[in-house]
Specification:
The radius of gyration is 27 Å and the shape is globular. The protein has 5 domains: about 100 residues, OB fold (Dihydrolipoamide Acetyltransferase, E2P); about 70 residues, OB fold (Dihydrolipoamide Acetyltransferase, E2P) (Beta Barrel), CATH 2.40.50.700; about 300 residues, no CATH class; about 55 residues, no CATH class; about 90 residues, Nucleic acid-binding proteins (OB fold (Dihydrolipoamide Acetyltransferase, E2P), Beta Barrel), CATH 2.40.50. Helix 2 packs antiparallel against helix 15 and helix 11 packs antiparallel against helix 13. Strand 8 and strand 9 form a beta hairpin. The strands form 8 sheets. It has a 7-stranded mixed beta sheet with strand order 12-19-18-15-14-13-20. With about 675 residues, it is of the alpha+beta class.
Amino acid sequence: MSKKKKINKSHSTDKIKREKKSTKKDHETFVVGDELVGVIDIARSGDAFVSIDGKDKDFYIHRKNINKAFDGDKVKLMRLHKPGGGSRPEGIITEVLERKRTHFIGVVSRANDTCFVVPDDTGVKVDFYVPEIHSMKAKQHDKVVVEMADWRPKDKNPIGHITEILGQAGGNDIEMKSILIENGFFTSFPNEVLKEADELPEKVSDEEKKKRKDFSKIPTFTIDPTDAKDFDDALSFRKLENGLFEVGVHIADVSHYVNEHCAMEKEAFKRATSVYLVDRVAPMFPERLSNIICSLRPNEDKLCYATVFQMAEKANVKDVWFGRTVIHSQKRFTYDEAQEILEGKDGVFKDELLQLNKLAYILRDHRFKNGSIGFDAPETKFQLDETGKPIGVFVKERKDAHLLIEDFMLLANKAVATFIGKEKNKNGKTPFVYRVHDLPNEEKLIDFQLFASKFGYKIQFDNPKQIARELNRLMFEIEGKPEQAVLQQLAIRCMAKAVYTTENIGHYGLGFEYYTHFTSPIRRYPDVMVHRLLDKILHDKKLPSHGDLEYQCKHSSERERAAAVAERSSVKYKMAEFMLDRIGEHFSGVVSGVKNWGIYVELPEYNCEGLVRVETMREDTFVFDERKMRMLGKRTNKTYQLGDRVEVTLTSVDIEKKTIDFELLKEKKVMM
């Protein structure tokens, strides 16, 4: 499907170091060869997969052949060539080349004066043995940080040293801190970073204002979530004498306050992103900078970097200006307040909001006609009491106010990337940070096409633009139907992951040839990089090398993925806490996953997923049919597959492991 991928595959194959030898195992003859390097992903079952650059398929690793690797480690493997071949490549791990991490979160388990730490991470399948001298006298059931010290060849367990005791496991605060630490984030800032933030001037000087384009008298406002404090974007709007609309997208000028060599800068790069857990934020910058100095709070002069558009009635951009501004926001809207005005309520800036919404609708329509894909995955939100306990769950609804802001942020990001990547890209060598999104995986698309057909949906995938059109059509057709959640999730899994890089290949999901992140420098490090690059290009200053930028891009992409894992973990923890009081209750759900250990069931009411273990499916002996991704009863031929509606009982919840278990009711499967 993609010429680029075929080239990469060939390039990777040229580098393969071939060694041939034979071995005997379970009366089968294997030929071992093709020494490869990749990253291991360990499943709940204990089996694993290794992804290899340039290879279309991941290598399957049986749990017996993992050879002391942990989830996410960089490993060396040897390919197993079985008699008769097979569609799935298999291998054995021969060496762990690089540990993804050396520190782990776990719970102390003591027995007979022996101390072990049981890791929270299900990808770590062994406990750490901790010599008493390195136990910090941690007590039974303490939540701790353990550092891997050694793993000798003949030892069953790695040796660990406890480096920090967080407190007794099970408490909300301890668990949330554990989630952050587990994913490599920090729960506090170094003193030197806090000191730098404290020394920043809160008031904008008259001298600085004179250096900037003054928007302080132009209608300007922010629209953010109710509980937000770090307002990093504002919109200004006015009609010009030439009949055009002037729309300013003003972004907090973080790079004005944070220079490239200060302590705040170094700390922000380490974090690379803010992390938004259910009940707290682990910010990229100290709160004085993110919530006070740079936050675009109402009725205060604030410094911004802006993209200012002149637009006609049909939202076509006639001119765009980039530069530093000073603004004075006259109103801080919540999304709900802005939405009420869009739906007819009177209020300040009503005319401005209505006109911006008209322009946003046109921008959105144009974007989708040009190949943008509309995946609107549901976002789970919790209502918490004063102690942080969840007392309600709801799925966040995205309305016009959310989409309005999104459309103008997308416009600004695209404009900056196009300006630098196209207009200022001297000889194609101007270093810049792009946000890119590759073509979907062809094999996964074919599987998805076959699966969707079981529900009566016919989709054609002949070229990239048709893929986008067909997926958008399908998302519209399944809205509100029982199969919506599972089809939506499977469609998303076909997509590549968006990353930061200096090599622009476009953003397939948005349908943009040029795209970057410019609009959230308070919470994303690449946006800070883009602000600096834009300023240097506008003023002909020396630019950093591609190599330096690419290193920062890769680090930022990795930290973004870690933040997503942490955020999902916090949702799972709160969901388990919420469901704990509902053990014994019955629910209607949809099969959202099938594995050899059971079926996963999603409750659309709560956007919550739990497991029906295969050993509890007592009406028959069920086996996992991997080819068709279903559970099949040996005697009855009854099947459970993705999208099936089922009735379940909530039987158990483990808050610490963040797991929810169901059992099927007697009337197990509701026919579609």
